[in-house]
Design goal:
The protein is 33% helix and 26% strand. The protein contains nine helices and 14 strands. The strands form three sheets. A six-stranded mixed β-sheet has the order 1-2-3-4-5-6, with helices on one face. Strands 7-8-9-10-13-14 form a six-stranded mixed β-sheet. It is globular, with a radius of gyration of 19 Å. 45% of the residues are buried.
Length: 268
């Protein structure tokens, strides 16, 4: 199975899961899209690559992740999967923690069907979910490369817990987030942890990647554990920086997380 980005808006990625086991190489291949905020770039990709859209996956209700559902399903009778606890027009299959989505039309080169496990990761929104596959996770706006989503509806404790669940996935897990925020996230991360050599190296590497016009994602859980301050709230240097900003002692990792998330909200 191939997972490819479709750029949308200013900095969104609509991820497309493409079947790799078509019996007829000259015929159309099946695909599934994740968080289509707009339909036009999806339709253009389907036409250009000779693909057939078979399903839609939604992680949360924000318009830049759901705005293309109506147009994409207007002339297609396809399932639309999404979180059960969020009101999203067009969702046909409401999902909760532990559900499995079997994408029968999307297979690996060896013919294995793509199966995704649903993980509830509230914080950015109350009902946000992720889809965990074999070696990858589609995490929407919860975990970003070198950052995390804003707390629009959830609490710091919820978001920290959700990030820790994602951080507990195998280190080699590929992380498919839905925005190209990496360079600004790295700039903030360096302000929090300037002596992190892995972070300094990553900043150079990712700037070079963007300079070539390539996406900085997917990232990996291992890379985020080494460089993402929101997954490193137990580190003494980050705690000290958070306490300086808060002007008081912080007694647990959730308080540290809340302090650096508040800093990020106003960082330029």
């Amino acid at each position: 199975m191939d997972i490819v980005p479709i750029p949308a808006f200013a900095d969104n990625y609509i991820w497309m899961l493409v079947d790799s086991a078509s019996a007829d190489p000259s015929g159309p291949r099946a695909c599934v899209v994740v968080d289509p905020g707009e339909a036009a770039p999806v339709e253009a990709t389907l036409l250009r690559e000779n693909l057939t859209l078979n399903a839609i996956l939604i992680t949360h209700h924000h318009a830049d992740h759901t705005g293309g559902i109506a147009a994409l399903t207007q002339h297609r009778n396809i399932p639309v999967y999404g979180p059960a606890t969020e009101a999203i027009a067009g969702v046909t299959h409401a999902l909760v923690e532990g559900d499995e989505v079997s994408l029968d039309s999307v297979r690996s080169k060896h013919g294995e069907v793509c199966k995704l496990r649903v993980m509830e990761i509230p914080g950015h929104t109350r009902g946000h979910i992720a889809y965990v596959g074999d070696g990858f996770v589609l995490c929407g706006d919860t975990l970003f490369a070198a950052g995390c989503g804003r707390l629009f509806e959830g609490t710091p404790a919820q978001m920290h817990a959700s990030l820790q669940r994602l951080a507990a996935l195998p280190p080699e897990t590929l992380v498919y987030c839905t925005h190209e925020y990496t360079l600004s996230n790295l700039k903030f991360a360096l302000s929090v942890e300037p002596d992190n050599d892995a972070l300094v190296t990553r900043s150079f590497d990712d700037r070079a990647t963007r300079g070539q016009g390539a996406p900085t994602v997917p990232t990996t859980i291992a890379r985020e554990l080494a460089t993402n301050p929101f997954l490193r709230c137990d580190q003494s240097g980050i705690r000290a920086q958070a306490e300086r900003h808060a002007g008081t002692s912080l007694h647990n990792v959730v308080d540290v997380f809340a302090s650096i998330r508040a800093q990020k909200d106003v960082f330029h």
